[in-house]
Design a protein that fits this description.
The protein is α+β, with helices and mostly antiparallel strands. The chain contains 1 helix and 2 strands. A two-stranded antiparallel ribbon has the order 1-2. Strand 1 and strand 2 form a beta hairpin.
Length: 67
Amino acid sequence: MTQLVYRQVPCPQCGTLSEWRPENPWRPFCSERCKLIDLGCWASESYKVPVEEQDAGIDPDALPPRG
């Protein structure tokens, strides 16, 4: 019988290697604790998605009319 070999991935929170497999309910995290820490960082807005600011040099009068 062939035994499956699962890929080891670093936990995004602490860096500990954990197996990426269906039996790991916290993947890609190594534990529930690391998953909750990461969720808390998103909830407290410690993490932010970068956004490109629009060019302020656009003249609104030069845009075609909406219609």
